[in-house]
C-alpha cells in the first residue's frame, strides 16, 4: 500500500544557482506539505553512504563528488500517493527527457546534475528520511 510520505533533496547544482525558493514553491504548489526540512552539506563519506545502492554503477564516484561539493536542502514531504506523484513532479532523471512543467525540465542541467532527488519507493522514502531526520525534527 502506498504511504503518504516521500523524501527529497535539492542538490548542490540547484542550490548554487540560487533555486531553493522556486523549487520549494513548485513542491508546495503541487500539494506537498513539508514535514521536515534541513539545509546541510554532506561529506563524501555521507554522500557515498546515501547512494550506496549505486556503488557498482560507473557514475558512482562522480555522483559522490557532486553531492558533497556544496550544501543541499533535505526534506520529507507529505501528500496522498506521495512517492509516485512526486516523481511525476520532478520528471525524468535525464532532464533532456523530462516533461514540460517538471522541476528537472526547468532547473536540471544534466543527467548527473539534475537539481533534485526523489525517493523511488515507499521503502526507500522511509530509509532516506531516517538518514537525515530524527523523530524530533518531523512535524
Ligand atoms: P537521483 O534520482 O538522485 O538518483 C541517483 C542519481 O545518480 C541520479 O539522481 C543522478 O544524479 C545520478 N545519475 C543517474 N544516472 C547517471 C548517469 N548516467 N551519469 C551520471 N549520473 C547519473
Protein model, in words:
With 139 residues, the chain is α+β, with helices and mostly antiparallel strands. Helices cover 40% and strands 17% of the residues. It has one domain (5-137): Nucleoside diphosphate kinase-like domain (Alpha-Beta Plaits, 2-Layer Sandwich). The protein has seven helices and four strands; from the N terminus they run E-H-H-E-H-H-E-H-H-E-H. Residues 54, 59, 62-63, 93, 111-112, 114, 117 line the site of adenosine-3',5'-cyclic-monophosphate. Adenosine-3',5'-cyclic-monophosphate binds next to helix 4.
Q: Average pLDDT across residues?
A: 97
Give the ordered list of helices and strands.
EHHEHHEHHEH
Largest sheet: 4 strands, antiparallel
In the CATH scheme, the class would be Alpha Beta
Structural class per helix/strand content?
A: alpha+beta
Q: What's the CATH architecture name?
A: 2-Layer Sandwich
- Structure annotation, total helices: 7
